[in-house]
Amino acid sequence: MADNIWAMFGTMPGGDEEISPPACMERAQTYLSERDKRKIRKEFKNRVGDPDQIQHLYRAVLAGAFLARQGFTVQYEPKINGQTPDWHFKSDGVGEFISEFRNFQSPEKIKVEQARALDENGPRLWSGAMPENTDRLWLAMLSKATKYKKLANETGLPYVLIVHGLLTACLDSGEVEKCILPLDGLFAEYPDLSGVYHMYERTYKGRLQLHWDGTQLQALAEAGDLRDPEAGYRFEYYANPKATRPAPWLTNGLLPYRFPARQV
Q1: Does residue 264 belong to any structural domain of this protein?
Q2: Is residue 263 part of a domain?
Q3: Among 22, 134, 169, 249, which residue carries the largest CB count within 10 Å?
Q4: How many domains, the chain?
Q5: Is residue 211 part of a domain?
């Protein structure tokens, strides 16, 4: 990848209530137990005023809903051997695993610029040079890869990291692969890490495009058609070929923007 990309982001007037964060959050929580719903609502209340923590929790709950829709029973922040990973997932006859979630954002300086531009009156546009994410992503994933290594060994459960890249961070799959797949990557160094889910947002048929202009990459985020069934949160699963406890039943998938609530 080039040393940096030139990115442009904007917001459109109006909105669609069905795919708004509050509406998606309510539907996502229908896949959780009553205990977990109470815990999530309490955490949201406690995090009011901290946008980063709200973003993290919102995307983490969407990840839980995605795996619940894949047939797993989900438990948020379970107590296991005195520790609390973000998730425990179990599917009878298939398997179970523990998981940590990481929300990956723009560098702090750029994040502040983006927030200011997208919140102000007027065109609500931001553009600027984005550095490559690999070094920051490596450190972020490393902290999670080691966090529950001991618990995974104690329980014998596969351990999976879910990394969500905010659209404004311009995180692409190639950068994720650089961190985990090489001979000196995280997979080779940490066989206790069973796999990584790369969670990212795509609008109409994946219209986040990367173009060469001869000297640099340009990222163009298009609004697309959010009613398209392919629009939503995509999950790409990378299995660790060196894993001591593999999770071969995990696959790629999609949580559509208009995913339904669970039918009781």
Answers
A1: no
A2: no
A3: 169
A4: 1
A5: yes
| Per-residue pLDDT at 115 | 77
Residue 107: the pLDDT is 81
Q: Is 130 exposed, middle or buried (0-12, 13-18, 19+ CB in 10 A)?
A: buried
CA–CA separation, 243 vs 74, rounded Å? Answer: 23
Here the contacts of 251-258 (C-beta below 8 Å, separation 24 or greater) are: 251/70, 253/66, 253/70, 254/230, 255/62, 255/65, 255/66, 255/69, 256/229, 256/230, 256/231, 256/232, 257/18, 257/19, 257/24, 257/226, 257/231, 257/232, 257/233, 258/18, 258/19, 258/227, 258/229, 258/232
Q: Give whichever of 22-31, 84-93, 126-135, 159-168 has the largest mean pLDDT.
A: 84-93
Q: Which phi-psi region, left, alpha or beta, contains residue 95 (left: φ > 0; alpha: ψ -120 to 50)?
A: left
In a domain, 262, yes or no: no
Two tokens, residue 142: 């490393």
Query: Around 234, how many Cα atoms within 13 Å sit in the side-chain half-sphere?
Result: 16
Question: Average pLDDT in the 241-258 region?
Answer: 95
Q: Which residue is it, tokens 């986040």?
A: 208
Strands, E, within 17-124: which ranges? 73-76, 87-91, 95-104
pTM over 0.70: yes
d(CA 26, CA 66): 14
In this predicted structure, what is the pLDDT of residue 124?
Answer: 63
Per the structure, the complete domain to which residue 225 belongs is given by 4-256
CB contact at 8 A, 175 and 219? no
Specify the pLDDT at position 12: 41
Q: Chain centroid to CA 152: how far? A: 21
Q: At CA 197, angle to CA 196 and CA 200, rounded to 5?
A: 140
Strand arrangement, sheet containing 217-221: 125-131, 4-10, 217-221, 208-212
